Amino acid sequence: MSNTLLTTTDLSISYGAVKAVRGSNLEVKEGEVVALLGPNGAGKSSTLRAIVGLIKSQGAVNFAGQDITGAPTERIVSLGLSLVPEGRRLFPHLTVRENLMLGAPRKAKSDDLFDDLLNRLPILRERLQQVSGTLSGGEQQQVAIARALMSRPKLLLIDEPSLGLAPTIVDAVYQLLSDLRKTGLAMVIVEQEVMRVLKFADRAYAMSTGEIALEGLAADLRTSDEVKKVYLGGAE
Ligand SMILES: Nc1ncnc2c1ncn2[C@@H]1O[C@H](COP(=O)(O)OP(=O)(O)OP(=O)(O)O)[C@@H](O)[C@H]1O
Ligand SMILES: [Mg+2]
Question: PROSITE patterns annotated for this entry (predicted)?
Fold first, then answer.
């Protein structure tokens, strides 16, 4: 029924002599929510950055029926793929409005979308003129997600949405993601809070030192002994 939206085929990423990702094959279907798990340094952020063309990779990336391997990030974003980077990466001295506008494609008429977004995130409307660096962590995460939505993505890649946030704020961020999912938006979520994301996602991949070690339905991984051992019992 549902069509494939994104595939990576034999995706590999190196930083000089360091092989960060080795031959990963990922698939995301339209409207699907996929979790990408793994300990620190497993290659999760590198994978997301390579998919949107921010770093070089080997192998192939296909999105919405097009080969986007090696394509410039601007083109990839215009096709409907958008990244919420690890650590939010807002411009702290710019206002919320200015940060959001940076997510809109050049020359695009995005006023309607802007209004739409602010209706969904009323807290941002109150703070449009505030400089982003003075927002709380949860508000900054909302701005980072809203900025990524300004390009009207079909697939949102989100790198550690709950990083550094108190549990109740994480609830609010996931509530936002849940609302967005209802609009048909597909997502790949990199998350250290494994059980939380496995309750939210449809499917999951777990990376370990650059390779995909496990994949399956999120509901199955939630009860998997291997996942428990790696994420709940061990040093993590
Ligand atoms: N710019 C870089 N230059 C050199 N090595 C890098 C660079 N970025 C990442 N690496 C290395 O690549 C590997 C994968 O890093 P990556 O950031 O993708 O991991 P991650 O799974 O996102 O980890 P974390 O959970 O800590 O965010 C690590 O060994 C890291 O040290
Ligand atoms: Mg990372």
Answer: ABC_TRANSPORTER_2
The string of pLDDT tens digits covering residues 92-143 is 899 998 898 888 876 556 677 778 788 878 888 889 999 999 988 888 999 9
Helices 137-149 & 111-120 angle (0-180, nearest 10):
150
Is the distance from the beta carbon of residue 41 to the nearest atom of ligand 1 less than 6 Å? yes
Looking at the CA of residue 207, tell me the nearest atom of ligand 1.
21
110: in domain: no
Is residue 65 situated within a structural domain?
Answer: yes
Quote the ligand 2 centre to 122 CA distance (angstroms). Answer: 29
**Ligand 1 pocket, 44 CB below 6 A?**
yes
* Ranges 22-31, 33-42, 164-173: which has the least confidence: 164-173
Residue among 145, 123, 147, 119 at smallest CA distance from 135: 123
Encode burial over 183-194: b for 16+ CB neighbours within 10 A, e otherwise. eebbbbbbbbbb
Backbone angles phi, psi at 7, to 5 degrees: -135, 145
The answer to whether residue 124 is domain-embedded is no
Residue range(s) defining the domain that contains residue 38: 4-91+154-233
Using CA positions, which residue lies closest to atom 7 of ligand 1? Answer: 15
Give the total number of structural domains in the chain. Answer: 1
pLDDT score of 30 more than 90: yes
CATH number, position 18: 3.40.50.300
Mean pLDDT within 162-186: 91
User: Is 203 inside any structural domain?
Assistant: yes
